[in-house]
Amino acid sequence: MHIHTTKSDGTYSVRDVFEKAKKEGVEAIAITDHDTVGAVEEAESVCAEYGIEFIPGIELSAMHGSKEVHIVGLYMDRHDKDFRETLNYLQKKRMERNEKIVKKLKDNGVSVDYDELFEMTENINTAGRLHLARLLIKKKAVANIKEAFNKYLGEGKAAYVAKIKMTVPECVAMVRKNKGIPVLAHPSKLGADEMIETWAKQGLMGVEAFHPDHRFEDSEKFLKIAEKCDLLVSGGSDSHGGAKDYTDIGTVKLPYSYFEKIKKAAGKKL
Ligand SMILES: [Zn+2]
Ligand SMILES: [Zn+2]
Fold first, then answer.
1. Ligand nearest to the Cα of 30, by number
2. How far is the centre of ligand 2, averaged over its atoms, from the C-alpha of 9 (Å)?
3. Domains of the chain
4. Is the pTM of this model over 0.85?
């Protein structure tokens, strides 16, 4: 219920995603690219070929204080006009952010050309930090993705630029207005457990208990929180393709019964 493609910062094409999911015996997948539903149309047209159920999704960013909170929206309707307008706005802001990061990198002695970034991505509208990290590796400025984030791109580092600030309730409201299911992504990375109950009261509908960054105890903890706050349970590999291999498709699967509950909540037939 959480996969990225080349339409955002993943390295798998839509077909790669389905091939891989088929190989791993996954029965249903959601593609959840950052700030875009660019992969949804193709996914909808090829899913039947693979016999895999497809859920149109998105991953949005909100801010809580200085922390970036990711909200996955499941069962999003890409035809909704207001939703499309908001996405266009977010993409414009994303471009402005990239320009600022490139400038900061330059100030720190790493010269990155905007055109080079353009070559790294299929869809420049959704270029992000992971693309920049790959570019830094290519330019031998860093050895790997981790170093790129620790040295330059991560929160508080030399070339960090915060994303546009939607609050969590705003983000949740945007998903619900579209009749989608808002889910708190990778909550352990966030470390704001105490906020989950409040967000649930403000309309959040689910939480990712299963994620490659979660140890067994983390999953147990978020399952308990979900039960306490009456939230749906979601999860997935958060695959970005081969770039972060411990998150490849199939490494983390959501038990089917949890998926059925999400589906039911979205008003879909089981
Ligand atoms: Zn995320
Ligand atoms: Zn993600």
1. 2
2. 9
3. 88-153 (1.10.150.650)
4. yes
